[in-house]
Amino acid sequence: MLQARNVSFDWSSLPLHYVDDDPLATHLVNVMHLLLPEGEEWFVRTFKEALPLIHDDRLRDDVIGFIGQEAMHATAHTQVLDSLTAHGIDVKPYVEQMQFLFGRALGNRPGHGRNSLVERVALIAAVEHLTAFLGDWVLNARALDTVEVDPTMLDLLRWHGAEEVEHRAVAFEVMRYFDVRPARRIRTYIAIAPTLVWFWARGVRFLMSQDPTLQGLPEKSRGPSFKDYRKVASRGLFPGPMMIWKASLRYFKSGYHPAQEGSTEQAVQYLAFSPAARAAER
Ligand SMILES: [Fe+2]
Ligand SMILES: [Fe+2]
């Protein structure tokens, strides 16, 4: 059964550029701490709304486990923000945009009824395809073990990634419980995936422009290009564009099921090893 692990992390000595002392590689990851908590709290609100409409006991249990895990993820990522602030990065303007996106634009509007709920569930299933892909990636990204990465941050990323792999089928199953038609699955993915990529790119540009160590550089070299991102990806420190594109195409295949992405066994294995998850168990 899915369960939330009550983890905690100490960020008091987190360096500013915690991935290989590389600003871009670090800020590509930092976007997660700014973007995910708002998204995950939106998941939690939406699934709490869906829960009374689910009359399948096993699926209900999975949804309750999913809600617990996503709420914990949101808390854990939010706690990193204090460290960014202490390093002189004002995260507020970007976080406020995310609050608007997930709170208002994608929130529940009174009077929109069941179809709006099912649409939001399908959007979340689409995002969960991407988070499962990212989770599987981070568990297998051997480059992160060979360069200098803050070990506590690497544990946060892999603990989160492992739980994403562990619960990767839940949102999909809830969507199918309400609507089995592939049209909604495909339409919602096309709506949300490019939006997320766009917000990710904006987030990286925002963080680079805020980074106090880059203030002396000309504006142009602070705004990372697609080429700069590809360089980081080619070093194995972030998923590359082709990888993301191919993962997206898999979501469109007929007969797609999240079980085909990543390995539960590997996820559970990591969770048994993760310092934060083990401390939570004690
Ligand atoms: Fe999550
Ligand atoms: Fe998730």
Give a description of the structure.
By secondary structure, the protein is mainly alpha-helical. Helices cover 70% and strands 0% of the residues. It has 14 helices and no strands. The structure holds fe (ii) ion (FE2) (2 copies). One fe (ii) ion binds next to helix 5.
Number of strands: 0
Broad structural category? mainly alpha
Radius of gyration: 18 Å
Share of residues in helices: over 70%
Name the poorly predicted regions.
none
Sum up the overall morphology in one term.
globular
Main beta sheet strand tally, sense and closure? none
**What share of the residues does DSSP label as strand, in percent?**
under 5%
Number of domains: 1
How many H/I helices? 14
Averaging pLDDT over every residue, what do you get?
94
Order of secondary-structure elements: HHHHHHHHHHHHHH
Q: What bound compounds does this protein have?
A: fe (ii) ion
CA(first)-CA(last) distance: 19 Å
Give the structure's gist in a few sentences.
This protein is mainly α and 282 residues long. Helices cover 70% and strands 0% of the residues.
Walk me through the topology:
Elements: H1 23-50, H2 57-78, H3 81-86, H4 92-105, H5 113-140, H6 143-146, H7 151-166, H8 170-178, H9 182-210, H10 219-222, H11 226-234, H12 241-252, H13 264-273, H14 275-281
The structure holds fe (ii) ion (2 copies).
One fe (ii) ion is lined by residues 70, 128, 131, 164, 167.
